[in-house]
């Protein structure tokens, strides 16, 4: 079976003038069937790490293992759900899900059946023949999930798949994804910058820090499922994790914001015309 | 916003406009504002059209023009789209050739008329050459920019699903550029039809452009107008035919937003 071991992975991106240490010595164990969420501010290397696990990027040093096989290139056992879906607009929902199946040597009938099965799993049977521009953002993301699942991978890698959606649609997809995970028990590595989202979905939240990008803290989440973004327990845990996040956020903001900016703002907020006993 | 629907009743309005224009034209003719030698009546035009149609000249000229356009345009498509693909895929190729392609695209194809005659004389070849020069460069540009604007994530997906080499071209690149290429085809086909008329006026012994030029020389404004109407109608029909390409389901995404 396929857990994922990330062992001492580092990656540097060289720009024209400087080199950015995107990832430094990241080590992480993901058990088979575990739902792990990487969370951190932009630039912490979480997408880079996911791409390395996928085999789409190559680490400078260190190694990722699937089970005990080293990962060298994209493989059938690992399937990626990309940010904003990355579906093909020239194909119908059904054909998008069938896209990778031809490479697996399935014949036309098997491909159609398998795609239909996974579209049903994400409740999109009615929209099989629709093209993407005829679907809403949430539906497209569900097609993307079905496409990745149809490859029947051991591991599902999800790169900020819900970041472009509105809050209500996202909440629906949290439920769908938890349901899919409960049913299929795939190993899932999920990347997001949204702490609340991480807590709703994860067995284990991995907080990453920046400059250099590294794994900071691992929080096991032991809350009952299905979870919802507005649950009180979820909010409580998310708050704890956010505290850790603030530190590294402050670090970026010092670079990006004007001087005089503080994470707490300028203290108490009050309207300019309010009178607090000035006339006494 | 209110949903606007083109009902059959509204479509009849265009017919009404045509009738009004023809009526105005008839009135202008009968009042004699212009000398009859340079301003035909609608009836004369219809008669002239019948005359040309019966003699078979109109048919032959139409075939000649369509042959030149389809040959020149076909060559431009056949060579321009592959070149555009190459430019789109290779940054160094773009850097090397794009300025030149842009230059020739901005140069009016009519500027080639003198050379077309010097090199190819009179007949089919100069017209075909001019039409090729008209459509080739815009097609290269349309294709190259379409290829260059394909989101990289599409290739990542194909990579993740284990696609190799040529499959990237057939499964991702080609379907991804179709809408823009079809738009390019429509634009250049329209331009080609415009240019063939000019080419035949100067470097032709037949064709619809020659027909109207010849009508002027013979002081037959009725034939001239008949020829103009045929040219316009064929242009519209060609465009309508190419519009059919945009109705293919797998390219609709490029037009419905």
Protein described:
The complex is a heterodimer of chains A (280) and B (257). By secondary structure, chain A is an alpha/beta fold. Chain A has helices at residues 46-54, 93-98, 108-121, 137-150, 167-184, 195-201, 232-256, and strands at 4-14, 19-30, 35-39, 61-66, 69-70, 78-81, 155-159, 187-192, 204-209, 214-220. In chain A, a hairpin with a 4-residue loop joins strand 9 (204-209) and strand 10 (214-220). The N and C termini of chain A lie far apart (75 Å). The relative contact order of chain A is 0.16. By secondary structure, chain B is mainly α. Chain B has a domain at 64-203 and 242-255: MetI-like (MetI-like fold, Orthogonal Bundle), CATH 1.10.3720. Chain B has helices at 8-31, 42-55, 57-89, 91-106, 113-120, 124-148, 152-160, 166-203, 208-217, 221-243. The radius of gyration of chain B is 23 Å and the shape is globular. In chain B, 37% of the residues are buried. The mean pLDDT of chain B is 91. The interface between A and B is medium-sized, with 21 and 23 residues.
Itemize the secondary structure elements and their pairings:
The complex is a heterodimer of chains A (280) and B (257).
Chain A: E1 4-14, E2 19-30, E3 35-39, H1 46-54, E4 61-66, E5 69-70, E6 78-81, H2 93-98, H3 108-121, H4 137-150, E7 155-159, H5 167-184, E8 187-192, H6 195-201, E9 204-209, E10 214-220, H7 232-256
Parallel strand pairs in A: 3-8, 3-9, 6-7, 7-8
Antiparallel strand pairs in A: 1-2, 1-4, 4-5, 9-10
Helix pairs in contact in A: 3-4, 6-7
Chain B: H1 8-31, H2 42-55, H3 57-89, H4 91-106, H5 113-120, H6 124-148, H7 152-160, H8 166-203, H9 208-217, H10 221-243
């Amino acid at each position: 079976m396929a857990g994922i071991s990330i062992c001492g992975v580092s990656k540097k991106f060289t720009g024209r003038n400087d080199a950015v240490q995107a990832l430094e010595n990241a080590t992480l164990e993901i058990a088979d069937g575990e739902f792990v969420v990487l969370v951190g501010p932009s630039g912490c290397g979480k997408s880079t790490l996911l791409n390395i696990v996928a085999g789409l990027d190559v680490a400078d040093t260190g190694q990722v293992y699937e089970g005990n096989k080293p990962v060298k290139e994209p493989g059938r056992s690992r399937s990626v759900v990309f940010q904003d879906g990355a579906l093909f607009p020239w194909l119908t929902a059904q054909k998008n899900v069938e896209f990778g199946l031809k490479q697996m040597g399935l014949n036309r009938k098997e491909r159609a059946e398998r795609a239909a099965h996974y579209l049903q799993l994400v409740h999109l049977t009615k929209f099989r023949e629709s093209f993407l521009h005829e679907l809403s953002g949430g539906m497209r993301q569900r097609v993307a999930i079905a496409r990745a699942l149809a490859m029947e991978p051991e591991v599902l890698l999800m790169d900020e798949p819900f970041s472009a959606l509105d809050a209500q649609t996202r909440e629906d997809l949290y439920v769908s994804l938890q349901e899919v995970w409960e049913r299929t028990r795939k190993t899932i590595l999920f990347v997001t910058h949204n702490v609340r989202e991480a807590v709703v979905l994860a067995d284990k939240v991995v907080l990453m820090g920046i400059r250099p990008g590294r794994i900071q803290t691992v929080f096991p989440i032991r809350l009952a499922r299905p979870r919802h973004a507005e649950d009180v327990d979820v909010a409580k845990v998310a708050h704890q994790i956010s505290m850790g996040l603030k530190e590294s956020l402050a670090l970026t903001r010092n670079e990006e914001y004007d001087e005089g900016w503080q994470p707490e703002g300028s203290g108490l907020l009050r309207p300019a015309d309010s009178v607090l006993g000035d006339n006494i | 916003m209110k949903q606007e629907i083109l009902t059959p009743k509204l479509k009849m309005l265009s017919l009404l406009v045509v009738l009004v224009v023809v009526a105005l034209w008839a009135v202008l003719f009968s009042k004699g504002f212009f000398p009859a030698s340079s301003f035909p009546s609608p009836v004369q035009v219809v008669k002239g059209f019948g005359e040309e149609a019966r003699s078979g000249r109109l048919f032959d000229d139409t075939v000649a023009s369509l042959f030149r356009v389809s040959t020149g345009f076909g060559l431009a498509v056949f060579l321009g789209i592959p070149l555009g693909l190459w430019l789109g895929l290779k940054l160094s190729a773009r850097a090397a050739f794009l300025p030149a392609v842009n230059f020739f695209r901005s140069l009016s194809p009519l500027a080639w008329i003198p050379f077309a005659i010097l090199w190819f004389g009179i007949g089919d070849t100069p017209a075909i050459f001019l039409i090729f020069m008209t459509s080739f460069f815009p097609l290269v540009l349309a294709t190259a920019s379409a290829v260059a604007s394909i989101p990289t994530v599409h290739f990542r997906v194909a990579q993740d699903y284990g696609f190799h080499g040529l499959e990237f071209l057939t499964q991702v690149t080609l379907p991804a550029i179709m809408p823009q290429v079809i738009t390019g085809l429509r634009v250049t086909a329209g331009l080609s039809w415009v240019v063939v008329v000019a080419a035949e006026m100067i470097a032709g012994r037949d064709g619809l452009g020659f027909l109207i030029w010849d009508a002027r020389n013979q002081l037959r404004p009725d034939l001239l107008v008949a020829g103009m109407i045929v040219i316009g109608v064929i242009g519209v029909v060609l465009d309508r035919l190419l519009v059919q390409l945009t109705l293919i389901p797998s390219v609709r995404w490029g037009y419905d937003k």
